Amino acid sequence: MSLEWALGLFVMALFLSGCGPQNNNHQSNAASVASFPSKTITIVCPWGAGGGTDRVSRYLADALKSSMGVPCVVQNKTGGSGAVGHSFGSNAKADGYTITMGTFELSTMHWMGISELSHKAFIPLMQVNSDAAALIVRKDAPWNTLAEFLDHIKANPGKVQMSGTASGGAWDLARAGFQIAAGLPVDAVLWIPTEGSAPSLLELMGGHIDAVCCSVPEAATQIEAGELRVLSVMSSERLAEYPDYPTCKEAGIDWEMVGWRGLLLPLDTPQEIVTQLTLAFQEITQSDTYQSFMKKNRFGIELKQGPAFGEFLKAEDAKWQKVIQATGYASPE
Question: Rounded to two decimals, what is the model's pTM?
């Protein structure tokens, strides 16, 4: 028997006996799934330390550490209006050890040309939070209802000044969508860009602008102190934590907007790992300690798992495409 023939038989025997490289990869993948988790899990936060998304991420990381018995850390990957962190998470190895804390911006960044990334780049694991946008004015503002405020805008097109975040940010898009739903052109209100809701609220209390669009939790301190008033919230129904605030729909305007946070995994993550993480986060988010943490921080709780979260993301993507095109923020073709 020639040496070449003997080597050929040996190689074939290796494959048939389950020792070939393809089978090794299969066994390795199976072993990785079976041993999950066996090392540190990272939650990628696309926003800076100390902010709301960071606080929620760190709470969930600590809870997951206790639940799964392995270290769990938060890695802040900031920049690009959220694009840097979301991209990092989507490009991570699909082994369950990198989870992205996705936020509202994932539904808008690709329409605005900030990134090509969308919800299609992830497996939706679980939505954990939503905070509805609200229209907020000073305590001495002349408008007591949303209808009165709208009448004032119509009578003074382009003169009412509003703020809440940077141009093209979540709350700017929220008020733009609201105006479109109310039959008002986007430029009927002059948007004053700021670095976020905190400086916008200071501008409002100082009398420099007329209204702010942001979430109720962001303005809760000033509202509870009686310095500011909520005209309306952009939710499907009144907020459980703030039942006195009417919705836009109650004023006949069919518009909703929520800033959301949710856990995402890279595509091709094994289903067994997806299921294991889903069960862990399900237990965490339904616990009394999670409910207390969210209430203390005034974050709204909205839980959607897997397919339900995915359908929500799909609907958000379509909704914001229309608003962004109407505002002129859309990326040129």
Answer: 0.84
